[in-house]
Amino acid sequence: MRATTASIVALTSALAAVASGATTGRPQNGRVCCHALNGILPNDTFLPNEQVYTAEFNNFWSSTEDLNPSCVFLPNTTEKVARAVQLFTRLNCQWAIRGGGHSPIPGAANIDGGVLIGTNHLNAIEINHEENYVRVGAGNRLGAVYNALDPHKLVPIVGRYEDVGLGLALGAGFSFLSNREGLTIDNTLNYEVVLANGTIVNANKDSNPDLWWALKGGNNNFGVVTHFHFQTFPYEGTVYGGNVIHPESAFDEVADLFYDYHTRQAVDDVLTHAMPSYDYIGATDVADATSLVVYNAPVDELPPIMQPWLEVPYSNSTLSRRTYSSLAHEQGSGIFYGLAVDQRLFSVYADREFLKEAWQIQLRWLRARRDVPGLVGVQVPMPITPNQVAQGIAKGGNALGLDATEEGKTVVVILMLLNFNNLEDLPRLRREHNALMEELVALAKKRGVYHPYIMLTYSGAGQEAIASYGRENVARLRSVAKAYDPTRVFQRLVPGGQKLPRR
Ligand SMILES: Cc1cc2nc3c(=O)[nH]c(=O)nc-3n(C[C@H](O)[C@H](O)[C@H](O)COP(=O)(O)OP(=O)(O)OC[C@H]3O[C@@H](n4cnc5c(N)ncnc54)[C@H](O)[C@@H]3O)c2cc1C
Fold first, then answer.
1. Is the distance from the beta carbon of residue 137 to the nearest atom of ligand 1 less than 6 Å?
2. Count of structural domains within the chain
3. Name one Pfam family in it (predicted).
């Protein structure tokens, strides 16, 4: 027990503040909130002078998330989350919710001067073999989920990098089997949620179905999710996959290859999966295309439909027969932590010439900035095929609004990622990176290939992902928020990340 006299005094003064009507208007001082929290849940609350606080301070992918919460709260039960949320709502305390900490949007999953709820200790993984799902605590990383399911020859539809968290299940989510099963949100059967008033509810197709729909894209605007139930699918225990590296000299053919994947391979054979990817390293002035390529079946070579990946001259490949955990491990092992990151995202209908040109323009832009310390630039054009959209509709619908624009064409979300060493370079580089994206968007509009969707999970600071779901869906999201959070707690007191548009 670490409840001190000071914390009890702070709790008393906080409660006095509530009695005097402090639940509206200015948020409560974070230190007062932390002392009050420490008073009721001392074993789970960590103040800035404690080792656990320091470890959690560094538990983010990007340095753009380095902020100074007044304390870190690491609950290990849903009930503790509920008690804390009740307290925060009563005292008017601000807080942030962190899954795996992989959003680079400043403040998306961290906060200055409020409470950081880290979900790490919510780490259950329980397989339900009868009903084909796995119940996963919100603090798990994807590697743990694959590791638990692989021995049972089961696979969920979650991300592809072992260290990344589960935030994708509130935004979109591309996975190895997405061409067959759709996005992560469409394979999330149930969310266990703590609402603003501290009530614990389940949201699924039968219970609170409006909340279930809203969480499928609605991010942290409705509650703190403590557990996800992901549908599981049987597989043979191994698949064929790895990374294929194509050199810059082959970029023209690589662009054709990516287009072929977007519009033919991913559409005609739902067992295909690829994450087409270009990158550029400023220090060496080297550009290449390192793409994850997977065939979701226990084969010993790529089938004919995926042979184009090996027909274009390549410099290296890690393709082999392996488990999903092994693939997630390989992806995760190439990731750097602690760098400054800016990411931008926009969407187009798949178009060979546009996609070819878009990377050439981005590459020229990167080369012009090669002297920025630690500069690495990436472009990842990922397809949303008509079947992915259809899966979303068939599995209960989601908030993304893609069904409204479905025209039987592949939509490509284009992630532009920029890494560099120094945070001081962030304001200028973000401005210029955004201007580059606007130039590409203008070109896409001129060519008639622009699509308005902004995928929340890869969106950058200042991009209004939820507004891109369309007016009707935004209105529906607002009405769900009004029903489950009538005093707008998750808009006022959880300020970070992609919020519901105000108008
Ligand atoms: C290296 C890397 C690899 C990636 N690979 C993939 C991939 O293969 N497929 C894919 O689709 N995406 C991928 N992404 C994108 C990734 O899915 C998103 O960045 C996602 O939001 C990360 O989730 P997180 O829990 O780690 O992030 P966080 O930054 O912790 O959370 C993101 C947002 O979700 C909210 N949130 C998180 N957990 C909860 C909760 N329990 N309750 C309420 N709100 C919550 C947070 O408040 C925050 O606003 C990748 C990102 C990186 C950096």
1. no
2. 3
3. FAD_binding_4
Instruction: Quick: pLDDT tens for 493-503.
Output: 999 999 999 87
- Contact assessment for residue 204 and residue 188, using Cβ atoms and an 8 Å cutoff: no
Closest Cα to atom 1 of ligand 1: 335
Same domain? For 202 and 96 the reply is: no
Establish if 78 belongs to a structural domain.
yes
Distances (CA, A) of 17 to 11, 13, 315: 10, 6, 65
**pLDDT at residue number 24:** 59
Residue type, 104: P
| Domain residue limits at 382 | 239-467
Q: Does residue 382 have its Cβ closer than 6 Å to ligand 1?
A: no
Query: Would you say how long the chain is, in residues?
Result: 503
Verify whether ligand 1 is closer than 6 Å to residue 191 (CB atom).
Answer: no
Nearest CA to ligand 1 atom 7: 159
Between CA 234 and CA 452 the distance in angstroms is: 35
CA of 368 to the centre of ligand 1 (A): 31
Tell me which of 121, 122, 220, 329 to substitute to probe ligand 1's pocket, judged by most ligand atoms within 8 Å of the beta carbon. Answer: 220
Q: Is 138 in the pocket of ligand 1 (CB under 6 A)?
A: yes
Q: Are residues 229 and 248 in the same domain?
A: no
Indicate the SS3 state at residue 247: strand
Q: Which residues pair with 340 in a beta bridge?
A: 420
CA 99 to centroid of ligand 1, rounded, Å:
7
3 state SS of 282:
coil
Q: State the Cα–Cα distance between residues 487 and 503, nearest whole angstrom.
A: 17
pTM higher than 0.85: yes
Residue 19 lies in a domain: no
Assign residue 51 the CATH number of its domain: 3.30.43.10
What token pair was written down for 226?
């403590």
Q: Quick check: CB of 73 below 6 Å from ligand 1?
A: no
Residue 152 lies in a domain: yes
| 3-state per-residue secondary structure call for 373-431 | CCCEEEEEEEEECHHHHHHHHHCCCCCCCHHHHCCCCCEEEEEEEEEECCHHHHHHHHH
Judge if the beta carbon of residue 497 lies within 6 A of ligand 1.
yes
Q: What is the pLDDT of residues 368-411, one digit of tens each?
A: 999 999 999 999 999 999 999 999 999 999 999 998 766 789 99
Q: What is the pLDDT of residue 5?
A: 45
Residue nearest atom 18 in ligand 1 by C-alpha distance: 457
Q: Which of 116, 164, 493 to mutate to test the pocket of ligand 1 (most atoms within 8 A of CB)?
A: 164
